[in-house]
Amino acid sequence: GHGGGWRGVRRSRGEQPPPAGRIMAGKVKWVTDIEKSVLINNFEKRGWIQVAENEDWNFYWMSVQTIRNVFSVETGYRLSDDQIVNHFPNHYELTRKDLMVKNIKRYRKELEKEGSPLAEKDENGKYIYLDFVPVTFMLPADYNLFVEEFRKNPSSTWIMKPCGKAQGKGIFLINKLSQIKKWSRDSKTSSFVSQSSKEAYVISLYINNPLLIGGKKFDLRLYVLVSTYRPLRCYMYKLGFCRFCTVKYTPSTSELDNMFVHLTNVAIQKHGDDYNHIHGGKWTVSNLRLYLESTRGKEVTSKLFDEIHWIIVQSLKAVAPVMNNDKHCFECYGYDIIIDDKLKPWLIEVNASPSLTSSTANDRILKYNLINDTLNIAVPNSDIPDCKWNKSPPKEALGNYEILYDEEMAQSDGADRDLRSRSGQSIGLKGYRARDSGKPVLTTWK
Question: What does the pLDDT look like over 390-402, one tens digit per residue?
Fold first, then answer.
């Protein structure tokens, strides 16, 4: 027999794998350390078999804690070809607030060096196309840079977030330097020497002109599935949603510490007096789209959604070179986007394990279907996984996912030439899907 799950290499070199016929007939053996019914019901519906983590498993839906152990240097075992997991080993290059920004900054610099039109700047030295994350500094490391920037615009509000926490924990807003000095004294980082990631924070310019609907601030949660980083192939889930604050928004500084005004996290909002337990303060993306088309017009709404898709692809391209593109991995990210009142989208952060807890009945159905469609792409036909699969499923298998970007296809289309659109409009954000409409679209982002 083999050793258990991942205790060392599973088959010795001489040992022959069972004949193909027997593999086909086999049932996928699954493990999870996230006891969520939307997951387990999906596995059971497929007739998959639950096993323990120290047995031979094919599919492990694991928490980010566990993935760290699986791929850690100490344990460093190899997964075999019939095993897949739901995270890339160093997903934190995208999903840690500080690292995402660092990688995007690096990506811009590289495009600039190459003379790419994507890295074009305006007369004030701001990126025209790549300015999609709010100005961000790491603390304590970039404290002096932050102060310099703060003094340029002393009336601005900044949002502080601990790098390693989620669900709105540890977040606060500041609009005076004295507040951050107080924070630095209080948080045992008074000397600003301790650089341990534990107390690393990011401080970002707060988007204080968010688009409001019914006077309330909201953000977008979009699900993006990456099946491979090199070549990049990613899918967008059509059923994203908006999360609303329960309290009307005011930029007034007297409300800086009222998180019901500023943070959309359900983990926070559900404690508000006005939280709605039926719809949970959520709207579907298609509702948002209809609302914007009727209030702002079709054209600007389409442009907004094109830009959102474009910044997601750019963020993935920014991390692709550093991502450990392990063939045993896929990952479904929760993207958080804020739209300002000029209909400009901002990438706020990317989550590695978007919440599978359901706050409402609709939420539960959405998440069940999200997992179902994700599994259909990650484990085609529910066959025993094989890492050597060609990872591009047929259109009919995508469910509510649509292909967002396919690097191989883009290159074979010759669409990888960075062309500005001839008529001098901004860069074509449409991608190759737009060409089906019969209009020639020159794309730069493929």
Answer: 767 888 889 999 9
